[in-house]
Amino acid sequence: MGWAAANFDDTTFEDPLTLRIDRAQNPHVGFGAGDHACLGAAHARVVIRTLLSALAGMVERIEVVEGEPNKRDIGGLVRLGGFTRLVLTLHPR
Ligand code: HEM
Description:
Elements: H1 3-6, H2 41-58, E1 59-74, E2 77-92
Antiparallel strand pairs: 1-2
Protoporphyrin IX containing FE binds next to α2.
């Protein structure tokens, strides 16, 4: 199942390629759905919220210097998942 693709559905998400952490309508399926929905979702949400809030308190801005998308070729279907290399500059507050 390509869960990530559903999160880029432009009939559901306005401007799907833009990261907006404050989307009011956000019916993403990043944690799956149905019988096998992620059991760790609540834990993951707390960890991510804590991390982002600590980071936001420390940095004014994060600049992407360079990034190499992680591409996986699965029998001709190319899937993008994160980065194999990501260089950032953190501008402190
Ligand atoms: C950002 C972090 C996480 C993401 C994006 C994520 C995503 C997902 C997704 C998409 C599924 C469904 C897979 C499928 O239906 O094939 C899943 C299942 C699952 N996740 Fe997570 N997960 C995360 C963190 C965690 C954590 C921290 C735990 C445990 C502490 C966890 C435990 C599980 C388990 C046990 C399942 C299988 C549930 C089942 O098959 O009934 N996950 N996760």
